[in-house]
Amino acid sequence: MRPVAVDILSGFLGSGKTTLLSHLLQGPLAGERVAVVMNEIGDIAVDARVVTGMEFVEDVVELNSGCICCTIDDYRFDLGVQELVERVDPNLILIECTGLADPAPVRARVQQAGLANDAVITVVDAANFDVHLQASSVNKRQIEAADFLVVSKTDLVSDREAAAVERRLGRINRRALRLRADRGKPENDLILGTSAARMRALSGAPAPLKAAEGPVGHLHEDRIGAFVIREERALDVGRFERFLEDLPRSVYRAKGFARVADNEWSCLFSFTCGRYELNWIKLGEAAGPTQAVFIGRDVEKSRARIERRLERCLAD
Length: 316
Hints:
Elements: E1 5-11, H1 17-26, E2 34-39, H2 48-52, E3 57-63, H3 68-71, H4 74-88, E4 92-96, H5 103-112, E5 116-125, H6 129-135, H7 138-144, E6 148-152, H8 159-172, E7 177-182, E8 185-186, H9 197-203, E9 214-215, E10 224-231, H10 237-245, E11 251-258, E12 266-272, E13 275-281, E14 290-297, H11 303-311
Parallel strand pairs: 1-4, 1-5, 2-3, 2-4, 5-6, 6-7
Antiparallel strand pairs: 7-8, 9-10, 10-14, 11-12, 11-14, 12-13
């Protein structure tokens, strides 16, 4: 099964996950082949009806009568996802967990199924932050597992209250990038990358990455930029892993293919807010060059340092 990109959408009950999902599907993901997996505790997947009617969503799978992190075993999950990938051939799978699910076991199942875990996105209700933390310990685990923390319902609180929530989130999860969402619309689309190239980079398609430089689209207002590095020579995988571990904090995302010495398989890598993942795929031809895109705030300032460090990853 090819390593399709998977984003896991988490957040406590009523935090605004489906509202965010609807915005993403109608906005930055419009025109992409997207399969949506929705999990609800009840017998009827009410939320699934919100997105089923959207013509650009390829498929919606409903997992009812249980929490995905507790009731779906590895075997059933693997078979279900494999059937979904073969039938739909999506560029992206979005899994919206029930509000009572711990995303960490879900991420483990995604990896065991041979899929590429792009990011865990946790929605946090700014208006009911304390209530949700006290209601269940799973809310804190949702925050701890996140790569991106989307602070929702900021229109219902003052800027001071929203800032206080963000500071507390930073103490719980220092690694995650925090973004505000006004009525379900986040400040920018960084949580899903910046273009359709993010899909190709994670789906295993051999199409070359575009070497677009500098700010990408409207993200220039947030000083979010991107650049691409291409390297023909093979890399040492151990050194490359250390390279990913030491990327500057200004890099929010990095992804692409790495050409590894003495290996005909390509290393498909994904880096998100300090967490990285390696997957191995065979493209049906000799391993191509290393192609990597780096996305972040004022990231161009770190380009020379990143290039020097990648140079040190070259195999002897």
